[in-house]
Automatic annotation (TrEMBL):
<feature type="domain" description="Glycine zipper 2TM">
    <location>
        <begin position="54"/>
        <end position="95"/>
    </location>
</feature>
<dbReference type="Pfam" id="PF05433">
    <property type="entry name" value="Rick_17kDa_Anti"/>
</dbReference>
<keyword id="KW-0449">Lipoprotein</keyword>
<dbReference type="InterPro" id="IPR008816">
    <property type="entry name" value="Gly_zipper_2TM_dom"/>
</dbReference>
<protein>
    <submittedName>
        <fullName>Outer membrane lipoprotein SlyB</fullName>
    </submittedName>
</protein>
Amino acid sequence: MTSLTLAAALALSACSTTSPDVVQRGDAQRLAQVQDATVLSSRPVVVDGSQSGIGGVAGGVTGAIAGSSVGGRREGQIVGVIGAVAGAVIGNAIERSATREDALEIIVQLRNGERRSIVQAKGTESFNAGDPVVLVTTGGKTRITRAPAVQPATNG
């Protein structure tokens, strides 16, 4: 019963990511605003999973089918309804668990003195107080990445 639900929830979680190391297709080849900043602090947080309803529907259908095959016609109908409800609850829980993400809350100070807090999924970079970073904003979403080394300008 739960294998179909689990497969649906896992497929859902594979479709969506907030990883700073993954650029969404719609953000590719778009000009982004970049701001220099310095990390003040960074702490681990968890982004709660989502419940789109697909996990519940998949679980409900699976539970109804599995339950309806129990016993005779009347018993099958009753167990089918119970299986649908139980499957929906389990499907929602699996989807929520599969879409949870470990993340970082990073507090930065911009060059003008303003402070910002950004939560982003854990990526390959770690951030410590004092690290120079850039805030990259595209389509209303901001991510933080390490500032690239700046080469001194040459007069030539």
